[in-house]
Design a protein that fits this description.
Cytochrome Bc1 Complex, Chain D, domain 2; two-stranded antiparallel sheet; single chain; mainly alpha
Length: 190
């Protein structure tokens, strides 16, 4: 009985020491080009989706109408495209991250980008970010409405979008507002 307790005690001491040694001497795969940890996908995704399910906001305060989709496209082109790319223009930065940032305007499986996720899941990811992936938290960079708008846009990536949103998502500049002719000022005639 004493030997069993001694074995358990030694294991409780030696296993953490071995793990710390493994980390201390640089054997942990931390570079982008390193192969993943065994079961890394499960180790990361199981707690991530458990937390998202626990904190999910069910009802988005924006609609998938033209104004909100175009506003979401503006946010996307300014904040998201550098890693997630534009339509038919993958991001060279996002493809060299680990894990690679998903190209949100490309079809994978049966969905385009994250259009198979509920809008509230995308909202959670944009608000909170995801550790160890390069996905930052936009909680302090965007308003809540902007986050809902870009999340709604991404949830509708597999549906027809307004032409102004499509132009922005192709990486084209937004059209300049058209000024209506009005009365001339005296300074305009010089």
């Amino acid at each position: 009985m004493g030997r069993i307790l001694l074995g358990i005690l030694l294991a409780m001491i030696l296993l953490p020491v071995a793990a710390l040694g493994w980390m201390r001497f640089g054997k942990v795969p931390v570079a982008v080009a390193d192969p993943p940890f065994p079961h890394e996908h499960e180790i990361v995704n199981i707690p991530l989706y458990a937390r998202i399910d626990r904190e999910l906001v069910k009802t988005p305060p924006v609609q998938a109408d033209e104004d909100d989709l175009v506003a979401g496209a503006h946010v996307y082109s300014e904040k998201c495209s550098v890693c997630h790319g534009f339509h038919a223009k993958p991001s060279p930065i996002g493809s060299n991250m680990y894990p690679a940032a998903p190209q949100l305007w490309e079809k994978h499986g049966t969905a385009v980008g994250v259009s198979d996720d509920p809008v509230a899941v995308t909202y959670w990811k944009v608000v909170n970010g995801i550790r160890l992936t390069g996905m930052p938290s936009y909680k302090l960079m965007l308003t809540d409405t902007e986050i809902w708008q870009v999340s709604t846009l991404l949830a509708n990536a597999d549906k027809p979008l307004p032409p102004n949103a499509v132009d922005l998502l192709r990486g084209e500049p937004a059209p300049a507002p058209v000024e209506e002719p009005g009365p001339r000022k005296p300074s305009d005639t010089k």
